[in-house]
Specification:
The structure holds three protein chains of three kinds. By secondary structure, chain A is mainly alpha-helical. Helix content of chain A is 80%, strand content 1%. The termini of chain A are close together. The chains are: A mainly alpha, B alpha/beta, C mainly alpha.
Chain lengths: 216, 250, 210
């Protein structure tokens, strides 16, 4: 084993054992490991983002881009300095217009994503499941029924006199919707649990392999 | 559906929603709206009033969505809640702390806390560090939140935003501290985890109702009713589309 | 000025938002280019926001250290590892040390946290059956069990009547759960739409202001 590989293996083993100790209880060993992890991840991401976004997409264009590129990059440069003012309690107000700019872009992206990326494709897919044959008709109808009752479950508005309770028809629809929601989340839960169990097996395997490589 | 048709329909939907939202907001005083009871929101209101009395703190976490991604909307809904909780609890010695896993969301959380603080005009100085970025990756963010749940005299944890299934680690950390959690996420795996780990989980779009159920602002209430209106239009579209598909027209 | 700034911020958020939104819906070359340019600027500013975020992380933990709050020693650990990581990741020539961070710490801890999650989920499912025994809970657990049977739990339990067949047919995943998931996703899209429009109409202003 090369020395670099040995150190990586040792670190990996150490951190794995420290984190897994949380299963027994929240110990100083676990806290130490997660704090180190948060620090390492923060430093790594910050350096990567700085190089790949700030340097490559801003500074490089300002330095070697065409005159138009330089002009266009002047705006984010100014906004970047304004945003950095957010670190000072005295000058943080300078960064607010920049945050407003980000909110505008982000909100528009979210709205467009919801409409074009979820609503329309999901409606289209639900309506086009009734191909040839009885089997397809039945399964398509069941999926549609599940979709409709699930959507109906979430109905918020009720009448004034109901004291926060649903009407009879809505109670029935919501009950059916709740059944489909429970089934859906149960199926997804199984997938999540499988992925997490795979991670658990992976870690146990890595501990065994490391110990094995040490004593071989 | 071609992209041009989708674009036109999209504009139509956005304009209709905007119009309905404005109209219902303006009409709210004449025609107040009423909503079904959601127990998680009752617990949030109770929790907010308790912290003023017992000197503990509320912890609100709004996830790790990138503000420039479509999943940021759940965090924006969480911010509406932070604003309300900030106003209600600013008079206590311990204003709420917020945690996020996204730098841009952290800026918004800090601004929201500040606005809430300024709106109640207390003599206490605003501490920007009540809005905390706890990590820069989804899992390091979760790992960074766990100490806050343990060490900050937290009486209630409210997790509303974009989380992955790892949110289960937060509910477990809170369970070990015996502090209640109210949680919601727009991601399906996180919802499945929360359904199992939480006593009163908020499911699906219920997370977007946070503002309306806690603030009783006309625009928030109106937006829920607009959601209901769109819900039935979509159900009609689904049934209509299915019938046309069966008839071989679509 | 105190009054002007909040209005200016709202104008920026609403104006930029509407331009970008139109760029998504209208298939015109000019609109699309403007949208992409604004998005590119936002990505760059988002990158700078990471630096502001690091500043926040640094301040919070330095304050903890200064005030000798509970767990201050862990803040010291965090800051130490953050500086080491910044140094290795940000200095030219130290690239060969990067695997120490990635393969030695970041990846093992992330997988280990998921492993801890596995235990948490199993315990929660058992706890759920004990404290919240109602129809949705039973359906939730039963569905999870059947799907797990289909994934690989069969080797533990052998071929179970009805449940085993259900697991193999994938009827639950491809029909029942599909419909439910679609309903939830459509609902979330509706919530996103109205939440987003409240901001684009200037009702909610998370960037500060009333």
């Amino acid at each position: 084993m090369e020395s670099n590989q040995l150190i990586i293996g040792l670190l990996s083993f150490l951190f794995t054992v420290l984190v897994l100790s949380y299963i027994i209880g929240d110990s100083p060993a676990f806290r130490l490991a997660v704090h180190a992890f948060v620090g390492v991840a923060a430093g790594y991401v910050a350096a990567t983002v700085f190089r790949q976004v700030v340097v490559d997409k801003l500074f490089m264009l300002l330095l070697i881009g065409s005159p138009l590129d330089r002009l266009l990059m002047f705006f984010p440069l100014v906004m970047s300095f304004m945003l950095l003012a957010k670190m000072s309690p005295r000058f943080e107000w300078l960064g607010r217009p920049v945050v407003a700019f980000l909110v505008g872009v982000g909100t528009a992206t979210a709205v467009a994503g919801a409409v074009l990326g979820t609503l329309f494709p999901q409606i289209e897919a639900s309506s086009s499941m009734f191909g040839q044959g009885l089997g397809s008709l039945l399964s398509g109808s069941l999926i549609l029924f599940a979709t409709i009752t699930t959507i109906a479950y979430f109905q918020f508005t009720v009448s004034k006199s109901s004291m926060g309770k649903r009407g009879k028809l809505m109670t029935l629809l919501a009950l059916i919707g709740q059944v489909f929601i429970a089934i859906t989340l149960g199926a997804i839960f199984a997938g999540v649990l499988t992925a997490a169990l795979t991670a658990f097996v992976d870690r146990i395997q890595s501990i065994v392999l490391f110990l094995d490589s040490l004593f071989r | 559906m071609t992209s041009q048709t989708a674009g036109l329909l999209g504009i139509g939907l956005v304009l209709f929603t905007g119009f309905a939202l404005t109209l219902l907001t303006l009409l709210y005083k004449r025609f107040p709206l009423h909503f079904r009871t959601i127990h998680a929101f009752l617990r949030i209101r109770r929790a907010a009033s308790l912290v003023v009395e017992d000197g503990t703190r509320l912890h609100v976490s709004i996830g790790s969505a990138n503000l420039l991604s479509p999943s940021c909307a759940s965090a924006l809904a969480g911010l509406a809640l932070i604003r309300h909780l900030g106003e209600v609890t600013s008079l206590s010695d311990h204003p709420p702390i917020t945690t996020t896993g996204s730098p841009t969301l952290n800026l918004l959380a800090q601004d929201t806390l500040r606005t809430a603080h300024e709106s109640v005009a207390t003599e206490q100085a605003f501490d920007m560090n009540n809005g905390r970025l706890t990590g820069l990756t989804p899992l390091s963010y979760i790992a960074g939140v766990m100490p806050s749940i343990r060490d900050e005299n937290i009486s209630n944890n409210i997790l509303i935003g974009n989380f992955g299934p790892e949110v289960g680690l937060l509910t477990e950390a809170a369970e070990r501290q015996k502090t209640p959690v109210i949680a919601a996420s727009e991601s399906l795996p996180a919802q499945a985890v929360l359904y199992a780990t939480n006593q009163a989980p908020l499911i699906g779009e219920e997370l977007f109702a946070a503002g309306a159920y806690t603030q009783a602002e006309p625009a928030h209430a109106a937006s829920l009713t607009v959601q209901d209106l769109l819900r039935w239009l979509i159900i009609l579209a689904l049934i209509g589309g299915a019938l046309l598909n069966m008839a071989g027209i679509l | 000025m105190r009054r002007v700034f909040p209005i200016l911020n709202a104008v920026i958020a609403i104006g930029v938002g509407l331009i970008v939104l139109t760029g998504y819906f209208v298939d015109l070359q000019g609109m699309m280019e403007i949208r992409l340019l604004l998005f590119q600027w936002a990505v760059i500013i988002g990158g700078v926001a990471v630096l502001v975020g690091i500043g926040n992380l640094l301040t919070v933990h330095l304050n903890k250290l200064r005030s000798r709050k509970k767990g201050a020693i862990y803040s010291l650990v965090l800051l130490f590892f953050m500086l080491i990581s910044l140094l290795i990741s940000g200095t030219a020539g130290l690239e060969p040390l990067k695997p120490l961070l990635l393969d030695g710490i970041i990846i093992p801890v992330e997988i280990s946290l998921m492993a801890v999650l596995a235990i948490t989920l199993v315990v929660s499912a058992i706890r759920m059956l004990r404290t919240r025994l109602d129809l949705p809970t039973i359906l939730f657990i039963l569905t999870a069990f059947i799907v797990l049977l289909g994934i690989g739990l069969r080797s533990f339990f052998g071929q179970l009547p009805i449940l085993g067949e259900l697991a193999q047919s994938e009827f639950i995943k491809n029909t029942l759960a599909l419909g439910g998931a679609r309903g939830i996703l459509i609902g979330i899209a509706l919530g996103t739409l109205t939440t987003g429009l409240r901001i684009l109409l200037g009702v909610d202003r998370p960037y500060g202001g009333k």
